[in-house]
# Entry
Amino acid sequence: MHNDTTYGEQLYNILFQIVGNKKNASLIESLRGENAVLTYLVRHPTEVHPGELAQKLSLVPGRMTDILKTLEKKGMIRREKDPEDRRRVLVKITPKGIRNVTERREQIRLQYSGLYEALGLEDTVRLIDLLKRVNQYFDEM
# Structure
């Protein structure tokens, strides 16, 4: 016999297994830390303030500062004074950072193309729709 609690536990357990699967490490890694910052900057090509990045990516300011320092040392971002408020800093992705994101996205695309092949078109479309609904649920919580 199943009830709402049992289904909720099953959903949690399968999501936990997917996130914890070592074969998904490149995807999971791309969703946090340095990779998440670079991906955000590629999708939002105007300069942003570190505080906005921290808020959008659910990172504490200290962690964001560490990530930005590392990315700047690697030449993937630039931090510059905000011309409208010299006390503030703006972050912008560099061509090297854009290449990094592009290469990582291609690796992930190739990895997940096998999932499409395993599921077929109909199930892939249904899974995408369901995952969109899951995301909407969490957005509305």
Observations:
- The helical segments are 4-20, 25-30, 33-43, 50-56, 61-73, 95-140.
- The chain has a mean pLDDT of 88.
